[in-house]
TrEMBL record:
CDD domains: TM_PBP2. This is Amino acid ABC transporter permease. Coiled coil: none annotated. It is found in: Cell inner membrane; Cell membrane. Signal peptide: none annotated. Keywords: Amino-acid transport, Cell inner membrane, Cell membrane, Membrane, Transmembrane, Transmembrane helix, Transport. Belongs to the binding-protein-dependent transport system permease family. HisMQ subfamily. It comes from the Bacteria. The keyword Chaperone does not apply. The chain crosses the membrane at residues 20-46, 66-86, 92-112, 144-166, 192-212. Residues 25-213 form the ABC transmembrane type-1 domain. It comes from Hafnia psychrotolerans. It is a multi-pass membrane protein. The keyword Nucleotide-binding does not apply.
């Protein structure tokens, strides 16, 4: 095709093709947003569990440590196929979207759990001791003392992880999830220029990812500024 073949360019942006691309983008955003939100909540629980010192929770801390160690080192695609085959052989037969969502949550919880744990541990132990002196409970210590001070450490890598995972959800196409990459493949198979199609996909990923990265940096600066006033 000539790069100035306007008929093909206008054809690519027809109503049904735009709907297909937007549906793919919607699935990509849903996987990223819900997966990382659930993963963040689960990761917070894992991080808090790791930060406790109670002897009775020692076996649970060991389990959490193994979980964080393993799933931060297994590629997303391997986790994706592992969940897919378990769902098939167990008879549960989750939808491909559910499989992808569970996989995202598993990996997100491991990565974000480690990020949050590092943030909690970055707060000087004197702050914990001061909270004990004030008769704060463990949860009160976390809420009023530790979490506010750990935010500057947690926010930047958390948003970086979100942006990374928006891109990594392209691997969900390997099990048939109709996300943005799958939609672009369909358009290429219909005869549209692969260069043009993937240029559009690149722009869509950029439109989503860039504002998120900027938001993360802005929040980090605001929190850092607030702490110094």
């Amino acid at each position: 095709m000539s790069y100035f073949d306007w008929s093909e360019i206008t054809g690519l942006f027809s109503y049904y093709n735009l709907v297909l691309l937007l549906q793919g983008l919607g699935i990509t955003l849903a996987l990223s947003a819900f997966g990382c939100l659930i993963g963040f909540l689960a990761g917070f629980v894992l991080a808090v569990t790791m930060s406790t010192k109670a002897a009775i929770l020692s076996p649970l801390r060991s389990v959490v440590h193994v979980y964080l160690f393993i799933f931060r080192r297994i590629p997303f695609l391997v986790t994706l196929f592992l969940v897919f085959f378990i769902s098939q052989y167990s008879g549960l037969r989750f939808s491909t979207f559910t499989v992808a969502l569970i996989s995202v949550c598993i990996i997100a919880a491991a990565y974000l759990g480690e990020i949050i744990r590092s943030g909690l541990e970055s707060v000087h132990h004197n702050q914990w001791e001061a909270a004990v002196t004030l008769n704060f409970s463990y949860l009160q210590t976390l809420r009023y003392v530790i979490i506010p001070q750990s935010l500057t450490v947690v926010i930047a890598p958390t948003f970086s992880f979100f942006v990374m995972y928006i891109k990594d959800t392209t691997l969900a196409s390997q099990i048939g999830v109709m996300e943005l990459t799958s939609a672009s493949k369909i358009l290429s198979d219909k005869g549209y220029s692969a260069t043009l199609v993937y240029a559009v996909v690149l722009m869509l990923y950029f439109i989503v990812s860039y504002p998120l990265s900027r938001l993360g940096k802005r929040l980090e600066r605001k929190i850092a500024t607030a702490r110094h006033h």
